[in-house]
Structure formats: C-alpha cells, structure tokens
Amino acid sequence: MHQCMYGLRTKDAQGEASAYKPTTTVTNHEALAESLSRRCTGGHRHAHLVGKTACTKAAQYPKDMCEAFLKAVAVIKKSVEETHLMGVEREDM
Ligand SMILES: [Zn+2]
After folding, report:
1. How far is the CA of 10 from the centre of ligand 1 (A)?
2. Which residues have CB under 8 Å from 77's CB, separation 6+?
C-alpha cells in the first residue's frame, strides 16, 4: 500500500507534496487487507522523505489510514459476532 493515498504528506526541497512511502501490512484478514491496500494512482507529485524529521513525522500513520483500519476492524468485529451467533444457533439445534 502507498501511504500517499491515505493523505501522508511531507516537505522536500520543492515544497509540500504527497509522500509515497510504500508500506507492507501483514494481515491475513481479507477485510483488513482490502482496506489497507490502496495503491498510488499517480496524478500527484511525490516528495521524498528526507532527513530525520521527515521520517519521524512519517512514522505516524496518516489519519485516513487509521480510519480505514478502524472501519475494517468494525467490519471484522461485526462478521465475528455474526459467526458467533450462527455458532450459537447451531449449538441449539
Ligand atoms: Zn502517490
């Protein structure tokens, strides 16, 4: 996934721009992997993360990415609850 699609921005010699910062997320959950797999569509300039300050700043996940993550977690929670409910029904039978 490319963090520029989640609003990660940084500054370089040419000014502020999106930061590409490809990140690999390790998850085997489909909903989670899907929400965190945005790939750069281009159409914007990428600034390089240069220097300690830029990299430290980029070490924080962009807000959009956190929201995508939380949304996926909510979906997973719901599906787990549904699975659990079905399990209970099966036990009753
Ligand atoms: Zn990009």
Report:
1. 12
2. none
Compute, in angstroms, the gap from residue 26 CA to the centroid of ligand 1. Answer: 21
Around Cβ 77, how many Cβ atoms within 10 Å? Answer: 10
> What's the number of CA atoms in the CB half-sphere (13 Å) around residue 20?
12
Residue corresponding to tokens 């569509």: 41
**Residue 24 alpha carbon to ligand 1 centre in Å:** 15
**pTM (predicted TM-score):** 0.60
Spatial CA neighbour of 73 closest among 27, 19, 5: 27
3-state DSSP assignment of residue 44: coil
Rounded to the nearest angstrom, the distance between the alpha carbon of 77 and the centre of ligand 1 is 30
Give 10-residue mean pLDDT values along the chain (93 residues).
Answer: 91 88 79 86 89 74 86 87 70 55
